[in-house]
Amino acid sequence: MGASWRQLREVCQRPVRAGNDVAGLLFGDHASLVITKLFVDFGVSPNYASVGFFVCGLAGAALQLSSGAWALLGAGSLVLYYVLDCVDGEVARWQKVVNVEWGYYDYLFHMLIKPLAFFGVGVGLWIELDAAWPLCAAFCAATATLWRKILIEIPGILFLKDVLRRSRDGGAAPKTPAAAQPHPPSTAAPAATPTAAPSAANASATEPFQLHFDLVTLRAALTNFDVGLVALSVATSIDLARDPWNLPLLGETSARGLWLTYYGVVLPLDFLDYLVTYLRRRHFSTEMARLLGLAHNFSAEDLDRRER
Hints:
Elements: H1 5-13, H2 22-42, H3 46-63, H4 69-95, H5 100-129, H6 133-169, H7 215-223, H8 225-241, E1 245-247, E2 251-253, H9 255-280, H10 283-295, H11 300-307
Antiparallel strand pairs: 1-2
Helix pairs in contact: 1-2, 1-4, 2-4, 3-4, 3-5, 4-8, 5-6, 6-9, 6-10, 8-9
């Protein structure tokens, strides 16, 4: 007898619900669970889902070089890329498998697929419309996507480099700021949490994201890459039903061209807003303090257990 839907939700999705984003809440959790059940019932390794989402992402980006039905197939493949990305984590939680090396590959896959998707659309429109502006829009969207990811990850990267360098040189461990000093058991306090992201993007960094009819949810949906993949599928479907049309400034364009133009403008603005807000709220210092607090009792045995 296979796992029940309730069991799957409790084991595979509930533990990470607090970190879910707008795409997961809107459709990711619902779409992935169907495939996750197949993996669980047949005992398939989550690594196959990881490889599958990478292949679907590459295929989807490559098919965007074309137009018409092929572009629509590519957009569908990119949506499947996102769904399979959800599946590999869910199956791993069910099977109690944590593999740091595959987490590394997962990270690289995303860093590769996301910009390739924008460039695939840009080059495809450049070929279809014989215009250079799609390439500019693709460059802006892809660069903003990568730099926002880097902006978020830099504190962790620098923290690890500093710790490893001091360990290698035999120096003392970095001094823990007061905000991250461990508290005695009798007065235990939670570790420092990262500074809240821009208020328009997150209501609070300490609270799980929730869907509401407000500007926070609207902005999250309008700047989320995975939600954008669904919008790309809609745009390519529209292009199947009608020919390109002329618009001021852009000239001849299509629904897919409007999709790319939108993200080529909105994502750089979103990144700049995050950058300014993070600098103003000293996100780097607060995140470093949080990491020091989390690493206070960390040991090599912890890593060994996680890898197994």
